[in-house]
């Protein structure tokens, strides 16, 4: 949300600067070109951010469906395979990322509260005993 507000403010400032330049309050080619470039960039950024905010609901639904599938698979199989474990770790990382960023002002609309409220998936005891190797 914060990034969207910031890009809209920059866009409005660029429109005002270009309008004042056309009224001949300023006679500078640099201000004119800088206003056009900044205005175009902020308009594009606003458009992209709005599209991402609209897509957040769909991607949250996919993440929740994936979460439900992994829970069902681990309950049915009893023992997790390497592929399921890899997806579990990636899904836990995604849930944690949503938890961290969902309430921040700058990224509020880009992350889902539904995904942030999901409990983390349990790792089997076998995976807890394996030491983590850092690169």
Describe the structure in your own words:
With 135 residues, this protein is mainly alpha-helical. The protein has one domain. It has 5 helices and no strands. It has helices spanning 2-22, 29-77, 82-101, 113-116, 125-128. Helix 1 (2-22) runs antiparallel to helix 2 and helix 2 (29-77) crosses helix 3 (82-101). The two termini are 35 Å apart. The mean pLDDT is 81.
The helix/strand order is HHHHH
Shape: rod-shaped
Give the helix level as a range of percent. over 70%
The domain count comes to 1
Structural class based on helices, strands and sheet pairing: mainly alpha
What would the average pLDDT be, to the nearest integer? 81
End-to-end Cα distance? 35 Å
How many individual helices? 5
Number of DSSP strands?
A: 0
Using the CA coordinates, give the radius of gyration: 23 Å
Largest sheet: none
SS strand fraction: under 5%
Low-confidence stretches: none
